């Protein structure tokens, strides 16, 4: 790497089977920079990865593909002799097969990129641009474009070019100017600044990474930076033939560049309409939900990294760059985040900030040697710093080299006992930790084991107090968790306990072996509640998937989605205190029109009273008197022989969702699992609706049917 045309200068890595070693060396002068002893056998596949960043060279060596190793470098060296050059492969003293040769580059769905001017070089951070323009064909005038942009120098400017000509001239540029702390919209044809503003959340500076999104619709262009709209202005031209990236006054970096025509933006087959999903990537566990300074923050898992979005209404989410990528200590698995409003931690210079806790999982260590680590943000979550160096906040219970199950920390404020409280899953139990400074934690008790353990590993715990039936004088604690992935749970399940917390231990109301389901559907997992909501509301989101088919759906470049937000309450029943859920009222802002049908009488031979009522996404509210019917319900998104049924079985006294005829399902044998002849049953209540009246509330949309609620009228 970094070689000249004949590979006589630069750096190389020798895989030397004869001497049983890897050797990193500088080619000119044959200077050894480091070696690593390892057994290298013929006819065996190995994976070699070399990272060259500034003057540091790192060599990774993978020998195991079932339990992948090679996360940490086996050779690290400093050398500043060569800073750029070509890539090459070489073989001597025999034959060798090279496969899957790839280099770091820009992550993008656009094809046909052309460097029009300046220098454009692949980089670990995407593509590095220096004083130039790079374009790709794109003919839609109405579009949504986004990129993660990092100005590299103090005076750097970097931007996205919209509606340019085929060769990159003209059009408009949404630009960041580090030297001026400015977000600017330029008319490139006229050479004029149409609008400008300062950074809407933090200063635009070199070294910072900013998510920039430009929306062009007709004669209006909007520019969002850090998830907040910075500019909106009118323009004169509505067409173009190319999209581009541009860098001026030095070097800038671009990554995750995506452009969609407005008609194609979040409209692919199976894309949910109002359930959260990413444009690209793999969405799974919510892991850090909070409210701070007028913003809702949503963090979730994306292949061992923590993705991040913000919202002002709990419904519409603006994406930000990855908050916590892989780091030297491992992957950043599920966890949580809190607001340190009073600088209890001492990390915020007397102000306030956000602290994230995550499961650190190191692929090279036994069982990942899972531990709890900390990151913090001083700028409303737009950038993050790791805390603690090589020492985790909470070590794996088995020690620094152990593989005990230990994951998914959730932190809350325990006001009644003037302490911070953390719950962590231990596989078949929950560990409780307390802290007074949010940084140092001590275990005080545990709950689980033995008769409390249920099939499947316990994951993603949450713990919080709620008043019973709104009575703040009667407070009960709720411990929620998810279990999977085994057949006894049909892949995944969500359960909860209620009980008393005395500041040091949890005493459940239930007896060992009692399982209370938090959600009876197959696609509600890893649910987590928001920290710090106004008015002490308790709202949570879940991952809409199942460990039987977590990323198997044929959705292309995006995988996974989250549930709609639900508000949690406790209610006293004949069987004890139970968790109740309802869709948050914020969802009503999505309603655009209403169709009403009253006083309908429906029987097996009746004509369809809803014929002609169509829609992609909708909410159904219905009050139903059963009469002599044994089953009632709705068929959603009917088309020839395809439909999904949401209904109520009067004899079984159960609400059900039947997706056996919903369409494509051959991506997994478990998507349609046989529950009473192909129908998945969701328990509603243990007691009959004595008067025969029920209320049904259904949220339906493209490829997402969930949040089905029933109650007595």
TrEMBL record:
The keyword Hydrolase applies. Signal peptide: none annotated. It holds the Pfam family Glyco_hydro_32C. Residues 587-673 form the Glycosyl hydrolase family 32 C-terminal domain. The keyword Transcription regulation does not apply. Belongs to the glycosyl hydrolase 32 family. This is Glycoside hydrolase family 32 protein. It comes from Streptomyces violaceus.
């Amino acid at each position: 790497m970094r070689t000249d045309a004949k590979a006589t200068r630069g750096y190389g890595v020798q895989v030397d089977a004869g001497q049983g070693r890897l050797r990193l060396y500088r080619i000119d002068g044959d200077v050894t920079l480091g070696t690593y002893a390892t057994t290298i056998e013929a006819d065996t596949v190995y994976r070699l990865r070399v990272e060259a960043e500034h003057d540091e060279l790192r060599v990774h060596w993978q020998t195991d593909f079932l339990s992948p190793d090679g996360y940490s470098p086996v050779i690290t060296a400093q050398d500043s002799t060569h800073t750029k050059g070509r890539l090459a492969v070489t073989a001597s003293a025999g034959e060798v097969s090279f496969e899957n040769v790839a280099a770091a580059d820009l992550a993008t769905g656009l094809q046909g990129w052309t460097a029009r001017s300046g220098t454009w070089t692949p980089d670990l951070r995407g593509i590095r641009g220096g004083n130039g323009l790079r374009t790709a064909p794109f003919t839609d005038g109405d579009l949504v474009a986004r990129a993660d942009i990092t100005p590299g120098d103090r005076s750097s400017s970097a931007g996205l070019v919209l509606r340019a000509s085929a060769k990159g001239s003209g059009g408009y540029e949404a630009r960041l100017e580090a030297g001026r702390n400015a977000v600017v919209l330029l008319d490139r044809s006229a050479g004029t600044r149409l609008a400008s503003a300062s950074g809407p959340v933090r200063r635009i500076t070199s070294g910072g990474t900013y998510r920039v999104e430009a929306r062009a619709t007709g004669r209006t262009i909007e520019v969002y930076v850090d998830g907040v709209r910075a500019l909106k202005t009118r323009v004169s031209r509505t067409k173009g033939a190319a999209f581009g990236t541009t860098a001026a006054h030095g070097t800038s970096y671009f990554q995750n560049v995506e452009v969609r025509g407005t008609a194609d933006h979040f409209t692919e087959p199976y894309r949910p309409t109002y359930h959260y999903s990413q444009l690209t990537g793999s969405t799974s566990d919510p892991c850090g939900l909070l409210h701070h300074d007028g913003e809702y923050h949503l963090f979730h898992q994306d292949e061992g990294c923590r993705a991040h979005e913000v919202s002002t209404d709990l419904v519409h989410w603006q994406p930000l760059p990855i908050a916590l990528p892989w780091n030297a200590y491992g992957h950043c698995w599920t966890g949580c985040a809190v607001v340190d409003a009073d600088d209890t931690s001492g990390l915020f210079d007397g102000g306030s900030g956000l602290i994230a806790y995550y499961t650190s999982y190191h692929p090279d260590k036994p069982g990942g040697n899972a531990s709890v680590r900390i990151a913090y943000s001083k700028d409303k979550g737009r950038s993050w710093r790791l805390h603690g160096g090589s020492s985790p906040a909470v070590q794996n219970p088995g020690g620094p080299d152990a593989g005990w199950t230990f994951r998914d920390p959730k932190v809350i404020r325990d006001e009644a006992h003037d302490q911070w409280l953390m719950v962590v899953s231990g596989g078949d139990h929950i560990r409780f930790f307390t802290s007074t400074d949010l940084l140092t934690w001590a275990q005080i008790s545990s709950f689980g084991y033995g008769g409390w353990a249920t099939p499947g590993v316990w994951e993603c715990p949450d713990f919080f107090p709620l008043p019973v039936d709104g009575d703040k004088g009667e407070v009960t604690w709720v411990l929620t968790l998810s279990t999977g992935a085994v057949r006894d749970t049909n892949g995944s399940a969500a359960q909860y306990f209620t009980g008393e917390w005395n500041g040091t231990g949890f005493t459940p109301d239930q007896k060992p072996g009692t399982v209370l389901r938090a959600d009876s559907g197959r696609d509600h997992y890893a649910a987590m509640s928001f920290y710090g909501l106004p008015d002490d509301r308790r709202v949570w989101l879940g991952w809409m998937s199942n460990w039987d088919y977590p990323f198997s759906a044929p959705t292309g470049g995006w995988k996974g989605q989250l549930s709609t937000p639900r508000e949690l309450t406790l209610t006293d029943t004949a069987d004890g205190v139970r968790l109740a859920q309802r869709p948050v009222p914020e969802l009503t802002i999505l309603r655009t029109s209403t169709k009403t049908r009253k006083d309908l009488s429906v029987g097996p031979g009746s004509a369809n009273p809803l014929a002609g009522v169509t829609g992609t996404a909708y909410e159904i509210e219905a009050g139903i008197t059963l009469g002599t019917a044994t089953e009632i319900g709705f068929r959603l998104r009917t088309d020839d022989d395809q439909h999904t049924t949401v209904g109520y079985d009067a004899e079984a006294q159960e609400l059900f969702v039947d997706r056996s005829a919903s369409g494509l399902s051959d991506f997994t044998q478990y998507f349609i699992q046989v529950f009473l002849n192909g129908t998945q049953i969701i328990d509603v209540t243990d007691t009959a609706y004595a008067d025969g009246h029920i209320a049904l509330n259904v949220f339906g949309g493209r490829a997402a049917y969930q949040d089905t609620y029933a109650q007595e009228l």
